[in-house]
Each structure stands twice: as structure tokens, then as C-alpha cells.
Design brief:
By secondary structure, this protein is of the alpha/beta class. The chain has seven helices and nine strands. Strands 3-2-1-4-5-9-8 form a seven-stranded mixed sheet, with helices on both faces.
């Protein structure tokens, strides 16, 4: 499938009904732990501005904003953007391959379970796009489900239309990330599926 077809499919899957449903989800403890750990890194680095890539309904963006960060959020789904904006967060309907911000606009980027919708052959472009909007030394939390190399439309998915997913091995994720970032930390959670957590930094020398 072409990237444009994948993006259109997933955008439709995350329409008004899906957004309303997801806005009722409670955060699992491990997700709260990941979020708090990243905030600690941001405070240690004296970061003040954060971009969330794939904000969903804006729960994380609103939390980071409540902790004093200047937050901007993007999501490919207009319905998700509407939910995020309703929480008082500056939000835009954007695709990760075309974020639409000037170079080096943000101190940090947060993205949890969004880039698993990007096919592997487009991941290098997606990571380069994120790196370009980070200031040198900027921090990036990249978290996705994965652990094995498998991608395609999940026929059993409960969304309509069924979503496209790309799962990658630990080695693939580390190799892709290292093309654009320094890796500060990598760990996984076994939470029914495997969550790959990467703490990354844009090198000072580009």
C-alpha cells in the first residue's frame, strides 16, 4: 500500500466515534510511569516547549501543559485534534511526514503509539521530519508496540476501516533511531504486547 492510502485509512479509522470512545480510556500505570520519567528528563534539561506527535484526544498533551510546558499537538485525525483543542491545547491536523513547523522549533517531542502506523519503508522519513523540528540537544520519547517484524492491515481490528500497523523488532527500532538520534535509553514493557520505549536526543552536531 502507498503511504497516502495508509494515512487515509487510519485517518478514517480515527473518526468522531473512535475519538469519543478513546477519550474515555484511563491511562495504564506503565504509561503514567513513562510520561513521568520523560517529564523528569525535560526538567533536568530545562526544556520548555514540547510537540506531541499523534496526540489522540490530547490527554498527554493536556497533562504536560498542566506541568508548565508550552505544548503543541498534532494528529492526522481532525476528530482527535478537535478533542485535543477542547482541552485547551494548541492543536493542528498534521501528518508526521509534513509537520509544517520551522526547523528547530521545539525543545522536546513526545510520541506514544503513533509511529506504529507508519510503514517501515517510511520510518526514516518520519524520524528525519521529527528530528528537523527539534532543537540540537532536544529530547524525543519514541514509544511503540512491537517486538517482531510484521506490518499490514489488521483484519480483526475493531476500528472501521481496520487500521494499518507496522511492528518492528528491537534491533530494527534501534537501528532506525540511531540514523537520526543519540540513544539515551531503551527498555521494554511486556503488557500483553511488547512496548518499545526509546529516550532519544538530537545530536548537537547535525
Amino acid at each position: 500500500m502507498r503511504y497516502s492510502d495508509i494515512a487515509a485509512r487510519n485517518r478514517a479509522a480515527y473518526g468522531p466515534d473512535a475519538a469519543a470512545d478513546r477519550d474515555t480510556f484511563a491511562k495504564e500505570p506503565w504509561k503514567l510511569s513513562e510520561r513521568s520519567a520523560f517529564l523528569s528528563r525535560l526538567r533536568a534539561a530545562r526544556a520548555s516547549s514540547l510537540l506531541e506527535v499523534g496526540s489522540g484526544t490530547g490527554q498527554d498533551s493536556a497533562w504536560f501543559q498542566s506541568e508548565g510546558l508550552d505544548v503543541t499537538a498534532v494528529d492526522m485525525s481532525p476528530s482527535m485534534v478537535e478533542r485535543t483543542a477542547a482541552k485547551g491545547v494548541r492543536a493542528y491536523p498534521r501528518d508526521v511526514l509534513d509537520l509544517g513547523f520551522p526547523a528547530e522549533s521545539f525543545d522536546a517531542v513526545w510520541s506514544m503509539n503513533t509511529l506504529l502506523h507508519v510503514p517501515t519503508d517510511a520510518m526514516d522519513e518520519a524520524l528525519a521530519s521529527i528530528c528537523s523540528v527539534l532543537r540540537p540537544g532536544g529530547l524525543f520519547h519514541l514509544g511503540v508496540f512491537g517486538g517482531k517484524h510484521e506490518e499490514g492491515v489488521m483484519a480483526e481490528d475493531h476500528h472501521t476501516p481496520p487500521r494499518f500497523f507496522a511492528f518492528r523488532t528491537d534491533e530494527q527500532m534501534l537501528s532506525l533511531a540511531a540514523r537520526h538520534f543519540e540513544i539515551l535509553d531503551f527498555h521494554v514493557y511486556a503488557v500483553g504486547v511488547r512496548y518499545q520505549s526509546l529516550a532519544l536526543v538530537r545530536p548537537v552536531q547535525w
